[in-house]
Amino acid sequence: MTTGRAAGVAASDRAAAERDVPDLVERCRSDARTRVIAVRGDAAARATGEPVRLHAFSPADIPDGAEWGFLGRADGGAAVLVAAFDPDGPPPLDAPGGWAGLREIGAALEPVEAETFVGAVSLGRWLVEHRYCPACGGLAVLRQGGWSRQCVACAREHFPRTDPAVIVAITDPARERLLLGANAAWAARTGGRMHSCFAGFVEAGESLETAIHREMLEEAGVRVSDVRYRASQPWPYPRSLMLGFEATAVDPAEARADGTEIVSLRWFTRADIAEALGGRGELLLPGPASVAHRLIREWHEGAA
């Protein structure tokens, strides 16, 4: 078993200005105060007991084979690092409370720790998956505390990629009903019960507004107006920045599922959503860790 330090880890300060400090990660690894989040894909080591926390390892606990990155500083000044492992390999060390995914426990964590978890997963995946230069195939060595790589052959610099995606809660003109769709990818797992907001990636050369109008017409068959920004969320599935909006359907009767990505859709009343939020009825909604859940809940609660 590991001799990891106390449970719980959060980088309250990203300390981005420190990333250019020479040998930053090595210095942090030699500091006994440093806290480490170990990740495999989208899963991290969980602490035991309640409330739900991530487990903070000491650098000395981490076995060989990790890719390291600097996540920032915790309250009190201790460095917070990520040690990322290949998700296809065996568990690299014992997790006191088991290995848990972001979707599974993200909503139960304190906000700063949840944000740190997202950062650890996002950076950790890039560290593991992009060891070589995509331009020439040369080895790409880490720079800036793990936030960039430089090819030893062609000297090109590479950075973690973020793909913007829009996600939209569509209401009727009176804002009394909410249009949600059942994604084909969920159908087998949920029997068609899971419904959510409509989403899609922003294409090259496309504005957010254009992406919203295109995606809503493609997936739900509706023209929209009165587009209103609500919230954003980094979402490392695989490397998205979800930009959440609410919009109004010009003609609710136009709503049609595309039959490919969206297999069915339906207008829901606030009573319908209230049942689902309370865990009753047939309708299943996205988990509370997602911005989709926030958009649905805010509409239900009547947020302007």
Q: What characterizes the major β-sheet?
A: 6 strands, mixed
- Described by the principal axes of the CA atoms, the overall outline is globular
Range of strand content: 25-35%
Secondary-structure element pattern, one letter each: HEEEEEHHEEEEEHEHEEEHH
The chain-level structural class is alpha+beta
Low-pLDDT ranges: 1-7
The helix content is: 10-25%
Give the topology:
Blueprint: H1 24-29, E1 35-40, E2 43-45, E3 67-73, E4 79-85, E5 99-101, H2 102-105, H3 111-129, E6 140-143, E7 148-151, E8 157-158, E9 163-171, E10 177-183, H4 184-190, E11 198-201, H5 208-220, E12 224-235, E13 240-249, E14 262-269, H6 270-277, H7 291-300
Parallel strand pairs: 1-4, 9-13
Antiparallel strand pairs: 1-2, 2-5, 3-4, 6-7, 7-8, 9-10, 9-11, 10-14, 12-13
Helix pairs in contact: 6-7
How would you describe the overall organization of this protein?
Helix 6 (270-277) crosses helix 7. Strands 9, 10, 11, 12, 13 and 14 form a 6-stranded mixed sheet that branches. A 5-stranded mixed sheet has the order 3-4-1-2-5. A 3-stranded antiparallel sheet has the order 6-7-8, with no helix packed on it. The termini are far apart. It has helices at residues 24-29, 102-105, 111-129, 184-190, 208-220, 270-277, 291-300, and strands at 35-40, 43-45, 67-73, 79-85, 99-101, 140-143, 148-151, 157-158, 163-171, 177-183, 198-201, 224-235, 240-249, 262-269. The protein is an alpha+beta fold and 304 residues long. A hairpin with a 4-residue loop joins strand 6 (140-143) and strand 7 (148-151). The longest helix has 19 residues, at 111-129.
